[in-house]
């Protein structure tokens, strides 16, 4: 399976693993799964940290790459197709980060590992 970790899932994996569901833990620990962290999540982490809304043990510039490498996550760059798709999704959920993550998942046929139900309403496959 190929899966995209939502921003909160990545943060919990690294800082509060007890918050992850059993399904999420199983997916993340399965060596047969390809797991991705989007540049969108990196951007969201950087902005939240800069705004004082996300405490991290070190700067995002150091923390994100070290955690991505530790958990063997692949980077998912933002494609032009995902940008266009994000604007074409239903207007039922306005969060721009979630919209773009959903669009990336749809475009790349990835399952989003997230507790956030709106991903399904946007048309993305979700597991939690």
How would you characterize the overall build of this protein?
The structure is a single chain. By secondary structure, the protein is of the alpha/beta class. The chain contains seven helices and five strands, in the order E-H-H-E-H-H-E-H-H-E-H-E. The longest helix has 13 residues, at 96-108. It is globular. The model has no long low-confidence stretch (mean pLDDT 97).
What are the main properties of this structure?
alpha/beta, Rossmann fold, five-stranded parallel sheet, 5 strands, 52% helix
Unreliable sequence segments: none
Helix content: 40-55%
Alpha-beta content class: alpha/beta
Inertia-based shape: globular
Separation, N- and C-terminal Cα atoms: 14 Å
CATH fold call: Rossmann fold
Compute the CA-based radius of gyration: 14 Å
How many domains comprise the coordinates? 1
CATH homology group? 5'-nuclease
Number of strands: 5
Q: Strand order of the main beta sheet, please?
A: 3-2-1-4-5
CATH class: Alpha Beta
Query: How much of the residues is beta strand, in percent?
Result: 5-15%
**CATH level-two architecture:** 3-Layer(aba) Sandwich
Instruction: Tally the helices.
Output: 7
Overall average pLDDT:
97
């Amino acid at each position: 399976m190929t899966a995209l970790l939502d921003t909160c899932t990545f943060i919990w994996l690294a800082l509060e693993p007890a918050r992850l569901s059993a399904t999420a833990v199983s997916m993340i620990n399965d060596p047969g799964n390809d797991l991705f962290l989007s540049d969108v999540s990196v951007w969201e982490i950087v902005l939240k940290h800069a705004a004082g809304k996300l405490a991290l043990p070190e700067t995002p510039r150091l923390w994100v790459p070290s955690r991505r490498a530790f958990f063997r996550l692949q980077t998912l760059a933002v494609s032009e197709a995902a940008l266009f798709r994000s604007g074409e999704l239903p207007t039922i959920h306005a969060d721009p980060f979630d919209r773009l993550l959903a669009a990336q998942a749809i475009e790349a046929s990835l399952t989003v590992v997230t507790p956030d139900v709106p991903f399904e309403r946007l048309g993305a496959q979700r597991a939690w």
